[in-house]
Amino acid sequence: MGSNADMGLEFRLGGWLFRNGYCLYAPAYHLYKKYVDRFGLRLIRSAVGQGSVILDVGANIGALSVLFSDMVGPGGRVHAFEPEALNFQRLRRRVRKRGNISTYPLAVSDRSGPLKLYKSSSLNVDHRTYDDGSGREVAEAEAVAIDDLFGSRRVDLVKMDIQGSECQALAGMRETLRNNPDAVLYIECWPYGLKKAGASGEELLDLVSGLGFQPKMIDPRNRRLTDIRFSRSEWESRETDPSAYFDLWCQRHFPDPQQY
């Protein structure tokens, strides 16, 4: 989803604009997300519709939440989770007139309760729930396990972009996903961040597969889904490269890929 840390100049400029010119940043970031995630959004539109329920885990300021809101319509619901206080304030303000978005000032993890949030001083898209050793400012936050909120309730799609903590979040939504056999997962896979969080890209794929999903890599340039066949050395290379990330599209049953 193109929002992880230690990126190039465009992210640094975006971070500066977020802090110093938010009235320009918000619409610019909205357009940016529509562009860079356009194939992912196309996949999402193929999987959800009016009345669907979407979990936006790592909603940030709500750029995707508002797009999801339009997709599911007044009979659907978007549940947007964002633990960082300023991001959440701006998320809530952004969606306040949309009656089908619920916002939660919470991280999503494997268990509900307090946790520490390690904040980025330069990028509002790079707050983390683990200590990467870089001396970040620490804030107290609250986490929720999705199973504690949803359990047997309907969920059609989970979008997740939480800087490497995806394995912990998935571990806390096993029951919810079991109870929603047609649910789809749209997840950022950032091996560098996953390793910093104590997991790995391989572990993420194994966890997704263990929940009954078939993970595919999104190839946005060629607008297709591909199988993931990295060697251990390729994973290791990605684990040391903060710019190496990709998005996963995970379903339990795949129809003819030509439909995408």
From TrEMBL:
It comes from the Bacteria. Residues 56-213 form the Methyltransferase FkbM domain. InterPro entries: FkbM_mtfrase, SAM-dependent_MTase, SAM-dependent_MTases_sf. This is Methyltransferase FkbM domain-containing protein. It comes from Handelsmanbacteria sp. (strain RIFCSPLOWO2_12_FULL_64_10).
